[in-house]
Amino acid sequence: MAITKSTPAPLTGGTLWCVTIALSLATFMQMLDSTISNVAIPTISGFLGASTDEGTWVITSFGVANAIAIPVTGRLAQRIGELRLFLLSVTFFSLSSLMCSLSTNLDVLIFFRVVQGLMAGPLIPLSQSLLLRNYPPEKRTFALALWSMTVIIAPICGPILGGYICDNFSWGWIFLINVPMGIIVLTLCLTLLKGRETETSPVKMNLPGLTLLVLGVGGLQIMLDKGRDLDWFNSSTIIILTVVSVISLISLVIWESTSENPILDLSLFKSRNFTIGIVSITCAYLFYSGAIVLMPQLLQETMGYNAIWAGLAYAPIGIMPLLISPLIGRYGNKIDMRLLVTFSFLMYAVCYYWRSVTFMPTIDFYRHHFAAVFSGIRRCLFLFTLNNDFVFRLAR
């Protein structure tokens, strides 16, 4: 039998702002950790006596665990409550971050990165859900704009902060900085969200579906992460991972479509808004990943930038949303969001075409900076508008 609770009134005033800070900080913490270790791999590998190729498992292990945890968040939240799951995730994310910073060999570090990735999975969807649940309906557009701003800024701060820490402090601090942030989030949420738990029901976990999900998503993530190192399909390992992933994902769709207790609610794709939103966000993130992952690597490996300057070259991707998101949040209800989405994708096309014809090894810092300004504007437009107009509308 489901445990029902009366819906608490939305928060107001200083309490609402403190909760907003706490939930945004949790999102920032998770997004920061997805990129902060990228520039630190050579340093970590050298300190732990491992090769750089072995050190990349620090990134891969987190990504695989995170990709697996996100789809099961809904079922877990339904079973134990959104707030309780969120608090547990923050607690163990912080503890695993502490253990990562204290690791003395690569195997131990990878183990705790897996734990960290599993705990990181629920943070973004639950922080967004809890934020919208506790905001007055007329202010939810503004809340979503603030949340989107955090998602944009954190991945840009990661490489800059990671490079600075590795150049000036011990590499362990790239993980240890999560601990004080986690304590702040827990303190504020335990104090201000007390008695605001969501409804729960004793949902059974679909083990066959979970197994197929782990094999499919895990195999796909490892294949994508290790493909370049292993020479893609010239490697038997990559071929095996691809076959396992494809078979598992196809089987997962078939199983979940016929299961009475699916771990993934595929019926959501019957909503046109949801389907268009998911496809659009997927395409947008594919484009955006080139800016925050591939371009900084190009600057460091080909153009001689260090980690800090490579991060600074793309800092406007995170800075521009600071200026634009509040405006969208205030006036977003008066604008046709479809126009903003279309405009953002047109900006993508123009900007990437401009990059393709002007970016040379001799290009100066300011041209990179100029391109990053437009990247920040379009990133803010597509993330906020897609979440608000397509996905969030599903709940209404």
From TrEMBL:
SUPFAM superfamilies in the cross-refs: MFS general substrate transporter
Domain Major facilitator superfamily (MFS) profile: 19-396
PANTHER family: MAJOR FACILITATOR SUPERFAMILY MULTIDRUG TRANSPORTER MFSC (PTHR42718:SF9)
Gene: emrB_3
Subcellular location(s) of the protein: Cell inner membrane
Annotated organism of origin: Escherichia coli
GO-annotated cellular components: plasma membrane
Family to which the UniProt record says this protein belongs: Belongs to the major facilitator superfamily. EmrB family.
Xref: InterPro entries: EmrB-like, MFS, MFS_dom, MFS_trans_sf
Name of protein: Multidrug resistance protein Y
Lineage of source species: Bacteria, Pseudomonadati, Pseudomonadota, Gammaproteobacteria, Enterobacterales
